[in-house]
Write a sequence for this structure.
């Protein structure tokens, strides 16, 4: 079997990181493949090794973003003890990984169905993770006996409102602060 060299794999990862930085800063809807290739100082054929079209490239970069975000957040909560602190760290971590995302990126993400679906899938995964953390806290007696699935659904609903800009529009809170506030309200509301 012909495996990619470590250089090719490293270069591929670097390109995804560069694409992600570009998209987070400026969004992606307005960019053509020619413009993207020019900005990354690579050829369009190099981009085609990552994905077969701009749409597929945007989706692949979105997957790359959320995969890295998930890894980063999970690493942040690894050494944290106590369900309350773990939830605060988790939701604050979500806010932190979204901090570099420009308003244009978030608008483009919401407007482009394949990327939005990746975000929504990750929101569901995050809600299940928060549900598991709540359940752990209830079992440990740190939280009162609450309906963990309902609390997780509440979190998921707010995560979508944050992503779509509704929270910023009605409260003025940026995404990172909104996630910290969500963590604070949630954990205070379910504490034993």
């Amino acid at each position: 079997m012909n495996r990619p060299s470590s250089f090719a794999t490293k270069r591929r990862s670097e390109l995804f990181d560069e694409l992600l930085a570009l998209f987070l800063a400026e969004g992606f809807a307005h960019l053509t493949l020619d413009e993207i290739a020019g900005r990354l100082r690579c050829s369009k054929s190099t981009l085609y090794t990552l994905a077969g079209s701009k749409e597929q490239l945007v989706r692949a970069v979105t997957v790359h973003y959320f995969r890295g975000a998930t890894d980063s957040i999970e690493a942040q909560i690894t050494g944290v003890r106590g369900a309350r602190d773990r939830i605060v760290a988790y939701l604050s971590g979500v806010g932190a990984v979204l901090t570099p995302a420009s308003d244009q990126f978030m608008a483009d993400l919401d407007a482009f169905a394949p990327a939005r679906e990746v975000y929504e899938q990750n929101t569901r995964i995050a809600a299940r993770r928060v549900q598991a953390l709540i359940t752990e806290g209830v079992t440990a007696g740190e939280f009162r006996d609450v309906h963990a699935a309902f609390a997780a659904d509440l979190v998921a609903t707010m995560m979508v409102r944050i992503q779509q800009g509704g929270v910023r529009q009605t409260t003025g809170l940026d995404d990172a602060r909104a996630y910290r506030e969500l963590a604070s309200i949630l954990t205070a509301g379910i504490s034993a």
About this structure: The chain has ten helices and no strands.
